[in-house]
Design brief:
Layout: E1 6-10, H1 16-26, H2 35-47, E2 51-58, E3 61-71, E4 81-89, H3 98-112, E5 118-120, H4 127-135
Parallel strand pairs: 4-5
Antiparallel strand pairs: 1-2, 2-3, 3-4
Length: 157
């Protein structure tokens, strides 16, 4: 039986390369920002108290991630709401419960922040993906999501 050391933590100053690497598993055809732009964006993320990138680390490797935004709100008695995005498990590490672990952790972050709801959108049409999120407590029946997707612009540098 394999014994792994696993931790889930917020990303820190030294995690940008691991994050960019795991995001390639989510969108392999996306343009990669140059290092200067990536550093500027990542520094904005680290300075934002309402946006966190969570990392699941197994031994010394980042194997899963998701981001969570805690959105201040003037409805619902002033309680915030949360949005979970960019849920990724490394391709070779899927179907081991890692995605469930990091999403449950994100749900805990939302609960600690007294969020009245937690939203998650997926662009996947795979029934297995929808079942995965439903098993974690998400419902596709409560809300209807609409998006406007813009073409990926040229890099900002």
């Amino acid at each position: 039986m394999n014994s792994f050391s696993e931790i889930i933590r917020e990303s820190g100053a030294d995690d940008l390369d691991d994050i960019l690497s795991i995001y390639r598993d989510l969108h392999p055809d996306d343009p990669v920002p140059d290092s200067g732009l990536a550093d500027r964006i990542y520094n904005q993320i680290l300075a934002n108290d309402f946006f966190k990138i969570l990392l699941l680390q197994r031994d010394e490797s980042v194997v899963a991630t998701c981001s969570i935004s805690i959105i201040p709100n003037l409805t619902r008695g002033g309680r915030p709401y949360a949005v979970i995005e960019n849920v990724v498990t490394r391709t070779g590490m899927r179907r081991q419960g890692l995605g469930s672990k990091i999403i449950r952790h994100a749900i805990g972050v939302a609960e600690k922040n007294n969020c009245y709801k937690i939203m998650l959108l997926t662009g996947s049409g795979k029934e297995a993906t929808h079942r995965f999120y439903q098993k974690l407590g998400f419902s596709g029946a409560d809300k209807t999501a609409y998006t406007i997707k813009k073409a990926v612009p040229e890099p900002l540098y």
